[in-house]
Amino acid sequence: MEMQRWSTRWKTKSWFMDSTITAFITLTMLLQAAKVRAAEPVDVLKVLAFQNYPEGVTKTTGFCANRRASKPDSAYRVSKQIQISAPTTQLFPGGVFPEDFSILTTVRPKSGLQSFLLSIYNEQGVQQLGVEVGRSPVFLYEDQTGKPTPEDYPLFSSLNLANGKWHRVAISVEKKTVTIIVDCKKKITKRLLRSDQASISTNGITVFGTRILDEEVFQ
Question: Cβ distance 6 to 204 under 8 Å?
Answer without folding.
Answer: no
